[in-house]
Amino acid sequence: MDYSNASSSGLYDPFVASWSAFICHMMEVPMNCLPKVMDTGCHLCTTEEDIFGGPIEVHCVVADQQSSAFGQVCWDPGMVKLTLGSGSFVDFITRKPHGSGTGLYPVVAWSLQGELAYLAEGAAMSTGVCLEWAKSVGWFDNVADTSDMAKSVEDSNGVCFVPAMNGLQVPFKDPNACCSVFGIRVDTRRQHLVRAMLESFAFRVVQIIETAEEELGRTFDSIRVDGGVSRNDFLLQCIADLTGYKVMRADNLETTAMGAAFFAGLSCGFWSCRDLLKGKVTYSSVFEPRPDSVPRLKESRRLWEEAVSRSLAWYTHSDE
């Protein structure tokens, strides 16, 4: 197992770079059954010849979000990667493991030639889940239509959507929050509902970024984005407007696969150094912040935060 997967298991302590005896004891996991932790890119094994018709060397095993960050060439402290898929995963490259009181998770990003890199990750777990639910109840027929639907109305007409199908993570850490819709009126249309939902995804991403700015004590230059939901132009523009950061959408959205290929290629010598990889990732869609949109979005966010406060701790243990 490589460092990124070991760290993502929850049994590995990134602060001391070893399996955690305390967590293993608490979870009743015998430490002698845990695998050796290896570099993310190295010769791990060779497949049996009869599986693929010939032996194939395996040179990489890497965790999902860490691979995506590497595939986006997010290598240096201060860089930010955002994956918009089933959830919204915001990864901040750090020089050392970051201890957080609000739910940012410290993980090992990867290990190359024995050198560890780290990231702090914040997640909002209900992005794609909410979109699939909204489609199933008839808010839209095709997810690809949602950006144009949101743009077709001036605002959400007072509707607020709280995307908490799986509770609310950073900075609330509330598994008992409920998914909810506020402000429906007789003149509410599907377009208003869709716009409120997309804006809520942006608000959650912004909350995570603001949390990281405060905890890490720094601002950022840009946000590199991938994942299926990142095809939504309206959502990315909202994130750019609210954060004030340039949002760059990768032309190849499958950056997790790209990252794994990069690690394997470096390990087997296909590329001699990682600087050669920088030109392999391109961004033809860049969303610049629009200051004139900020006042309206801030007012929408103010109403949305009130809706969030009413959705927290909705469920109790007796309801589960």
Key features of this structure:
alpha+beta
The number of distinct helices, counting runs of at least 4 residues, comes to 10
- Assembly form of the protein: single chain
N-end to C-end Cα span: 35 Å
Sheet bearing the most strands, described? 7 strands, mixed
The portion of residues assigned to helices is 25-40%
**What number is the mean pLDDT?**
95
Low-confidence stretches: none
Order of helices and strands: HEEHEHEHEEEEHHEEHEHEHEH
Large-scale geometry: globular
Kindly estimate the percentage of residues that lie in beta strands according to DSSP.
15-25%
Summing up helix and strand content along with how strands pair, one would put the structural category as alpha+beta
Kindly state the number of beta strands. 13
Strand order across the biggest sheet? 7-8-6-5-11-12-13
- Roughly how many Å is the radius of gyration? 21 Å
Structure characterization notes:
With 320 residues, the chain is α+β, with helices and mostly antiparallel strands. The chain contains ten helices and 13 strands. It has helices at residues 3-8, 21-26, 49-52, 64-71, 127-136, 146-151, 190-216, 233-243, 255-268, 294-311, and strands at 12-13, 18-19, 41-46, 57-60, 80-84, 88-94, 105-112, 115-124, 160-162, 180-182, 222-226, 246-249, 285-287. A seven-stranded mixed β-sheet has the order 7-8-6-5-11-12-13, sandwiched between helices. Strands 1-2 form a two-stranded antiparallel sheet. It has a two-stranded antiparallel ribbon with strand order 3-4. Helix 4 (64-71) crosses helix 9. The protein is globular and about 65 Å long. The model has no long low-confidence stretch (mean pLDDT 95).
